[in-house]
Design a protein that fits this description.
By secondary structure, this protein is α/β, with parallel strands linked by helices. The chain has one domain: Alpha-Beta Barrel (TIM Barrel). Helix content is 46%, strand content 19%. The protein is built from 11 helices and 8 strands. It has an 8-stranded parallel β-barrel with strand order 1-2-3-4-5-6-7-8, surrounded by 7 helices. Helix 5 links the parallel strand 4 and strand 5. It is globular and about 45 Å long. The chain starts with a strand and ends in a 5-residue tail after the last helix. The model has no long low-confidence stretch (mean pLDDT 93).
Protein backbone atom coordinates (compact mmCIF):
# COMPACT_ATOMS: atom_id res chain seq x y z
CA UNK A 1 0.00 0.00 0.00
CA UNK A 2 1.35 3.40 -0.99
CA UNK A 3 1.78 5.88 1.86
CA UNK A 4 0.91 9.57 1.57
CA UNK A 5 3.47 12.04 2.90
CA UNK A 6 2.85 15.77 3.34
CA UNK A 7 5.92 17.99 2.98
CA UNK A 8 5.80 20.96 5.34
CA UNK A 9 8.18 23.61 4.03
CA UNK A 10 6.81 26.57 5.98
CA UNK A 11 9.36 28.77 7.73
CA UNK A 12 6.95 29.57 10.57
CA UNK A 13 6.77 26.57 12.93
CA UNK A 14 3.30 27.52 14.20
CA UNK A 15 1.97 27.64 10.66
CA UNK A 16 3.55 24.26 10.00
CA UNK A 17 2.01 22.77 13.14
CA UNK A 18 -1.40 24.19 12.23
CA UNK A 19 -1.21 22.74 8.73
CA UNK A 20 -0.09 19.39 10.10
CA UNK A 21 -3.06 19.30 12.47
CA UNK A 22 -5.45 20.04 9.60
CA UNK A 23 -4.15 17.32 7.30
CA UNK A 24 -3.07 14.64 9.77
CA UNK A 25 -6.26 12.56 9.36
CA UNK A 26 -5.51 12.10 5.65
CA UNK A 27 -1.75 11.48 5.64
CA UNK A 28 0.54 8.71 6.82
CA UNK A 29 3.81 10.62 7.11
CA UNK A 30 4.40 14.18 8.29
CA UNK A 31 7.56 15.63 6.81
CA UNK A 32 9.52 18.36 8.53
CA UNK A 33 10.84 19.87 5.32
CA UNK A 34 14.40 21.12 4.94
CA UNK A 35 13.53 24.86 5.07
CA UNK A 36 11.37 24.31 8.16
CA UNK A 37 14.07 22.25 9.86
CA UNK A 38 16.70 24.90 9.15
CA UNK A 39 14.40 27.69 10.30
CA UNK A 40 13.10 26.12 13.50
CA UNK A 41 15.76 23.56 14.40
CA UNK A 42 15.23 20.06 15.75
CA UNK A 43 12.75 21.35 18.32
CA UNK A 44 10.11 21.31 15.56
CA UNK A 45 10.70 17.56 15.13
CA UNK A 46 10.17 17.14 18.87
CA UNK A 47 6.96 19.17 18.71
CA UNK A 48 5.61 17.18 15.75
CA UNK A 49 6.33 13.95 17.61
CA UNK A 50 4.51 15.20 20.71
CA UNK A 51 1.44 16.41 18.81
CA UNK A 52 1.13 13.53 16.33
CA UNK A 53 2.23 10.39 18.18
CA UNK A 54 0.44 8.04 15.76
CA UNK A 55 2.07 9.43 12.61
CA UNK A 56 5.44 8.70 11.07
CA UNK A 57 7.65 11.79 11.33
CA UNK A 58 10.20 12.35 8.57
CA UNK A 59 13.06 14.82 9.11
CA UNK A 60 14.27 15.92 5.68
CA UNK A 61 17.83 16.73 6.70
CA UNK A 62 19.29 16.05 3.22
CA UNK A 63 22.48 15.09 5.02
CA UNK A 64 25.75 15.52 3.09
CA UNK A 65 28.23 15.01 5.94
CA UNK A 66 28.31 13.86 9.57
CA UNK A 67 25.82 11.11 8.74
CA UNK A 68 25.63 9.49 12.16
CA UNK A 69 25.53 12.81 14.00
CA UNK A 70 22.71 14.32 11.96
CA UNK A 71 20.78 11.07 12.17
CA UNK A 72 21.13 10.98 15.95
CA UNK A 73 20.01 14.60 16.33
CA UNK A 74 16.67 14.06 14.62
CA UNK A 75 16.06 10.55 15.94
CA UNK A 76 16.59 11.70 19.51
CA UNK A 77 14.03 14.44 18.81
CA UNK A 78 11.49 11.80 17.77
CA UNK A 79 11.85 11.34 14.00
CA UNK A 80 11.14 7.94 12.45
CA UNK A 81 12.95 8.61 9.17
CA UNK A 82 15.66 10.96 7.95
CA UNK A 83 17.24 11.70 4.58
CA UNK A 84 20.69 11.70 3.07
CA UNK A 85 21.65 13.09 -0.33
CA UNK A 86 22.87 10.44 -2.73
CA UNK A 87 25.78 12.74 -3.63
CA UNK A 88 27.17 12.38 -0.10
CA UNK A 89 30.37 10.39 0.32
CA UNK A 90 30.11 6.66 0.83
CA UNK A 91 31.35 6.95 4.45
CA UNK A 92 28.58 9.47 5.18
CA UNK A 93 25.93 7.23 3.63
CA UNK A 94 27.22 4.19 5.50
CA UNK A 95 27.31 6.10 8.80
CA UNK A 96 23.85 7.62 8.40
CA UNK A 97 22.11 4.46 7.27
CA UNK A 98 23.93 2.47 9.93
CA UNK A 99 22.91 4.87 12.69
CA UNK A 100 19.29 4.73 11.58
CA UNK A 101 19.25 0.94 11.61
CA UNK A 102 21.12 0.75 14.93
CA UNK A 103 18.27 2.77 16.45
CA UNK A 104 15.52 0.79 14.75
CA UNK A 105 14.74 3.80 12.52
CA UNK A 106 14.77 4.35 8.75
CA UNK A 107 16.96 6.15 6.24
CA UNK A 108 15.93 7.55 2.86
CA UNK A 109 18.47 8.49 0.21
CA UNK A 110 17.37 11.38 -1.98
CA UNK A 111 18.40 11.57 -5.65
CA UNK A 112 17.67 15.31 -5.84
CA UNK A 113 19.93 17.07 -8.33
CA UNK A 114 21.35 13.82 -9.78
CA UNK A 115 21.49 13.61 -13.57
CA UNK A 116 22.11 9.87 -14.03
CA UNK A 117 19.61 8.58 -11.48
CA UNK A 118 20.02 4.91 -12.34
CA UNK A 119 23.79 4.94 -11.95
CA UNK A 120 23.48 6.79 -8.63
CA UNK A 121 20.72 4.52 -7.36
CA UNK A 122 22.49 1.28 -8.27
CA UNK A 123 25.45 2.35 -6.15
CA UNK A 124 23.06 2.51 -3.20
CA UNK A 125 21.81 -1.05 -3.47
CA UNK A 126 24.45 -2.67 -1.28
CA UNK A 127 24.06 0.06 1.37
CA UNK A 128 20.42 -0.96 1.85
CA UNK A 129 18.67 2.32 2.65
CA UNK A 130 15.01 1.86 3.48
CA UNK A 131 13.88 4.13 0.64
CA UNK A 132 15.29 5.85 -2.41
CA UNK A 133 13.55 9.07 -3.46
CA UNK A 134 13.13 10.36 -6.99
CA UNK A 135 12.82 14.07 -6.27
CA UNK A 136 12.37 17.05 -8.57
CA UNK A 137 13.31 20.02 -6.37
CA UNK A 138 11.47 23.33 -6.22
CA UNK A 139 14.03 25.16 -8.37
CA UNK A 140 13.98 22.33 -10.90
CA UNK A 141 10.18 22.36 -11.00
CA UNK A 142 10.23 26.04 -11.92
CA UNK A 143 12.90 25.53 -14.57
CA UNK A 144 11.96 22.15 -16.03
CA UNK A 145 8.28 21.50 -15.34
CA UNK A 146 6.88 18.19 -14.24
CA UNK A 147 8.44 15.20 -12.54
CA UNK A 148 10.03 12.76 -15.03
CA UNK A 149 7.97 9.65 -14.32
CA UNK A 150 10.06 7.59 -16.73
CA UNK A 151 12.75 7.89 -14.07
CA UNK A 152 10.49 6.25 -11.52
CA UNK A 153 9.76 3.40 -13.91
CA UNK A 154 13.49 2.95 -14.54
CA UNK A 155 14.23 2.76 -10.82
CA UNK A 156 11.33 0.39 -10.20
CA UNK A 157 12.57 -2.03 -12.84
CA UNK A 158 16.25 -2.03 -11.88
CA UNK A 159 16.73 -1.06 -8.25
CA UNK A 160 14.75 -3.43 -6.05
CA UNK A 161 14.36 -0.96 -3.16
CA UNK A 162 11.20 0.83 -1.95
CA UNK A 163 10.76 4.13 -3.79
CA UNK A 164 9.52 7.53 -2.75
CA UNK A 165 8.53 10.18 -5.28
CA UNK A 166 8.35 13.95 -4.77
CA UNK A 167 8.14 17.12 -6.81
CA UNK A 168 5.08 19.22 -7.59
CA UNK A 169 2.63 16.31 -7.38
CA UNK A 170 -1.11 17.00 -7.66
CA UNK A 171 -4.16 14.69 -7.76
CA UNK A 172 -3.96 14.70 -11.57
CA UNK A 173 -0.60 12.91 -11.35
CA UNK A 174 -1.82 10.15 -9.04
CA UNK A 175 -3.21 7.66 -11.61
CA UNK A 176 0.06 7.51 -13.53
CA UNK A 177 2.11 7.43 -10.33
CA UNK A 178 0.00 4.68 -8.79
CA UNK A 179 0.61 2.48 -11.83
CA UNK A 180 4.33 2.57 -10.95
CA UNK A 181 3.65 1.52 -7.35
CA UNK A 182 5.91 3.81 -5.31
CA UNK A 183 6.06 3.08 -1.60
CA UNK A 184 5.55 6.78 -0.75
CA UNK A 185 3.96 9.67 -2.64
CA UNK A 186 5.06 13.06 -1.32
CA UNK A 187 2.80 16.08 -1.80
CA UNK A 188 3.86 19.54 -0.74
CA UNK A 189 2.53 22.80 -2.11
CA UNK A 190 -0.71 21.37 -3.51
CA UNK A 191 -1.71 20.72 0.10
CA UNK A 192 0.28 23.22 2.14
CA UNK A 193 -0.35 26.25 -0.10
CA UNK A 194 -4.06 25.51 -0.51
CA UNK A 195 -6.67 27.78 1.01
CA UNK A 196 -8.11 24.66 2.66
CA UNK A 197 -5.22 22.24 3.24
CA UNK A 198 -7.48 19.58 4.75
CA UNK A 199 -9.66 19.54 1.63
CA UNK A 200 -6.62 19.39 -0.62
CA UNK A 201 -5.25 16.45 1.37
CA UNK A 202 -8.60 14.67 1.05
CA UNK A 203 -8.49 15.19 -2.73
CA UNK A 204 -5.07 13.58 -2.92
CA UNK A 205 -6.12 10.70 -0.68
CA UNK A 206 -9.28 10.12 -2.72
CA UNK A 207 -7.25 10.12 -5.95
CA UNK A 208 -4.97 7.49 -4.42
CA UNK A 209 -7.94 5.42 -3.30
CA UNK A 210 -9.50 5.50 -6.77
CA UNK A 211 -6.20 4.63 -8.45
CA UNK A 212 -5.62 1.69 -6.12
CA UNK A 213 -9.17 0.50 -6.80
CA UNK A 214 -8.45 0.48 -10.52
CA UNK A 215 -10.24 3.75 -11.25
CA UNK A 216 -13.57 2.62 -9.85
CA UNK A 217 -15.60 5.33 -8.05
Amino acid sequence: MTLLQVALDHLDPEKALSCAAAVAPEVDIIEVGTPLLKSAGVRIVREMRARFPQKLIFADTKTMDAGALEASLVFEAGADLFSLCSAASRPTLVAGIGEAHRRGKQALVDLIGVEDILEAALRLGELKPDYVCLHLGIDQQEAEGRLPLEGLDLLRRHLGLPLSVAGGITPADIPELARLEPAIIVVGAYITAAQEPAQAAREVREAMRRAQAGGRP
